[in-house]
Amino acid sequence: MSEKYYVEVLTSLSPEMQDIMMELEKDAFPGIGAVDEQTLVPIARFGKLIVYRETGDPRPIAVCELMREYNAPQRAYVFGYYVRSDQQGKGIGQKFFAEVMNIIDKDGFDQICLTVDVSNTPAVKVYEKLGFEIKETREAEYGKGEDRYYMEWRKTN
């Protein structure tokens, strides 16, 4: 990892960081349900909130929100994953997700799952390059017109 970029795991959020994170959520998911502090704080405290930073920039350039699947505790669920809009197209998404996968591995998970908008071809391609497979299409997953691919990655021994 370059010294310019670094990973940070947030376990709590100051009011200022809550505001920054909610701004980033709205940028990443405009009009489709960006999370607020009522979701971000529990994810930081009881899940895992991983951010990718660039030295000198107070705002994260990428964010990953992780949860453990209750009925399959060996599986991590990527609740949210995004690269800040002004940082997209630089390969950051793939680099950061590789870092996230290292953290997930160190935490003892052997599976990762996520959903992604079926029209988000760049994200689907990144996930496929990282070894994820589309397992199913979930129609109206988050309401009418919100179709998602359910994708999984499994550790191979």
List the helices and strands and how they pair.
Layout: E1 5-10, H1 15-28, H2 37-46, E2 48-54, E3 62-68, E4 75-83, H3 92-106, E5 111-117, H4 121-129, E6 133-138, E7 148-154
Parallel strand pairs: 4-5
Antiparallel strand pairs: 1-2, 2-3, 3-4, 5-7, 6-7
In short:
The chain has 157 residues and is an alpha+beta fold.
Structural class: alpha+beta
Number of strands: 7
User: Mean pLDDT across all residues, rounded?
Assistant: 91
Return Rg in Å. 15 Å
**What helical percentage do the residues reach?**
25-40%
Count of helical segments?
4
- Give the overall silhouette: globular
- How far is the first residue's CA from the last residue's CA? 25 Å
Low-confidence segments, given as residue ranges, are none
Helix and strand element order: EHHEEEHEHEE
Description:
By secondary structure, this protein is α+β, with helices and mostly antiparallel strands. Helices cover 31% and strands 31% of the residues. The protein has a seven-stranded mixed sheet with strand order 1-2-3-4-5-7-6, with helices on both faces. Helix 3 (92-106) links the parallel strand 4 (75-83) and strand 5. The longest helix has 15 residues, at 92-106.
What descriptive keywords fit this protein?
alpha+beta; globular; seven-stranded mixed β-sheet; 157 residues; 7 strands; 4 helices
